[in-house]
TrEMBL record:
Record-given protein name: Na(+)-translocating NADH-quinone reductase subunit D
EC numbers: 7.2.1.1
Top-level EC class as recorded in UniProt: translocase
Presence of keyword Membrane: yes
Recorded name of the encoding gene: nqrD
TM segment ranges: 43-62, 74-95, 101-119, 185-203
Cited Pfam families: Rnf-Nqr (PF02508)
Record's subunit section: Composed of six subunits; NqrA, NqrB, NqrC, NqrD, NqrE and NqrF.
Keyword Mitochondrion: no
Origin species: Gilvirhabdus luticola
Bilayer disposition of the protein: Multi-pass membrane protein
Function of the protein: NQR complex catalyzes the reduction of ubiquinone-1 to ubiquinol by two successive reactions, coupled with the transport of Na(+) ions from the cytoplasm to the periplasm. NqrA to NqrE are probably involved in the second step, the conversion of ubisemiquinone to ubiquinol.
Keywords: Cell inner membrane, Cell membrane, Ion transport, Membrane, NAD, Sodium, Sodium transport, Translocase, Transmembrane, Transmembrane helix, Transport, Ubiquinone
Lineage summary: Bacteria, Pseudomonadati, Bacteroidota, Flavobacteriia, Flavobacteriales
InterPro entries hit by this protein: NqrD (IPR011292), NqrDE/RnfAE (IPR003667)
Family that this chain belongs to: Belongs to the NqrDE/RnfAE family.
Length: 214
């Protein structure tokens, strides 16, 4: 018998594809627009949300029977704010330059609809293990989209990946630039992130017709 039952495994796999929080539920769009101009920032934001949602879901699940319903939203905000502060302090301690790049967007994890939605819709009604899997699955689904968008925006907008030139030198005109290729500055603007997300949604619905709304 495997570590995860089929039902438990679906808590992780469903958000990666057919129930993705960004492309299907259309949540967490703001950060997808704001910080995906660089792949590194996309990866760090994805890991941050993975930590906050995974741990937060477990904490809320453990407290679910003692949280008065009238103040449950306040309790959820306190939990997520505490975890976000931890993430912010870790980034400032070990990746200060990146923390400045992400700046206010790390703090906005507190209001991320995906996190509050999973607290309210799942963690309050399920045990810690299932809540952990649900948190990891939804955070991973969110992170996959951020990383894909960050990959293409940095590659075609700056000609780099993780800050490393991969298409050649645009000044010396080496590599792909020797053929006349130029970086597309529009890829670095927020509207392009929305277009890339739209293309991903289109591809996803093309592959799975059941996702197309009537």
């Amino acid at each position: 018998m495997g570590l995860l039952s089929k039902k438990d495994a679906k808590l992780i796999t469903d958000p990666l594809a057919d129930n993705n929080p960004i492309t299907i539920q259309v949540l967490g769009i703001c950060s997808a627009l704001a910080i995906t101009a660089e792949l590194e920032a996309s990866i760090v934001m994805s890991i941050s949300v993975l930590f906050v949602l995974g741990v937060g879901n477990v904490v809320i699940s453990l407290m679910r029977n003692i949280i008065p319903s009238k103040i449950r939203i306040i309790v959820q905000l306190v939990v997520v704010a505490t975890l976000v502060i931890i993430v912010d302090l870790v980034l400032k301690a070990f990746a200060y330059e990146l923390s400045k790049t992400l700046s206010v967007f790390v703090g906005l994890i507190i209001t991320n609809c995906i996190i509050m939605g999973r607290f309210e819709a799942f963690a309050l009604g399920n045990g810690p293990w299932k809540s952990f899997l649900d948190g990891i699955g939804n955070a991973a689904g969110y992170g996959v989209i951020l990383i894909i968008v960050g990959f293409f925006r940095e590659l075609f907008g700056s000609g780099t990946l993780l800050g490393i030139p991969v298409l050649g030198d645009p000044i010396e005109k080496t590599g792909l630039y020797a053929t006349g290729y130029e970086n597309n500055g529009f890829m670095l603007l927020s509207p392009m992130a929305l277009i890339v997300v739209g293309i991903i949604i289109w591809v996803q619905r093309t592959k799975n017709k059941e996702l197309i709304e009537d």
